[in-house]
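Q: Given only this backbone (150 positions), what sequence would you predict?
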């Protein structure tokens, strides 16, 4: 007699359990990659270093930027040209980046981090709106704007 359905050594429930285990392992491996298969940054593999800070200006108060929900909140940051910007990144436990390509700022926020402060100098000649992205989650809509004011 031929069994009616998928079996594993003659027992259908084991085949189902085996498929569930394989699917669970696949999903946990895919979800643990920081999204969309991107490699996770670690504290030992930092991204590019932010531009050197000026020693002439006092340390500004940090602007808080929430990284939760695959978005930057607030979506628009305002910084002053010719001054040091200080941003406190409030993580959600996932790996992210704080990337402003036009200023060569690319900082990795490691998985598990809840708060990290980023400082960078905004060159005096910079003006307008610059694109802010999380390079791991840009395709998921994690983009923002840095507005440079004089």
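A: Predicted residues:
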């Amino acid at each position: 007699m031929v069994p009616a359905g998928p079996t594993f050594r003659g027992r259908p429930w084991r085949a189902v359990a085996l498929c569930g285990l394989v699917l669970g392992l696949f999903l946990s491996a895919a979800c643990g990659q920081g999204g969309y298969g991107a490699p996770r940054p670690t504290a030992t593999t930092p991204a590019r270093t932010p531009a050197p800070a000026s020693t002439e200006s006092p340390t500004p108060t940090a602007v808080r930027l929430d990284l939760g929900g695959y978005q930057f909140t607030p979506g628009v940051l305002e910084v002053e040209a010719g001054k040091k910007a200080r941003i406190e990144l409030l993580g959600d436990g996932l790996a992210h980046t704080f990337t402003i390509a036009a200023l060569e700022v690319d900082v990795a926020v490691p998985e598990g981090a809840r708060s990290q402060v980023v400082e960078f100098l905004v060159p005096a000649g910079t003006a307008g709106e610059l694109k802010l992205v999380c390079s791991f989650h840009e395709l998921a809509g994690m983009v923002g704007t840095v507005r440079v004011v004089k």
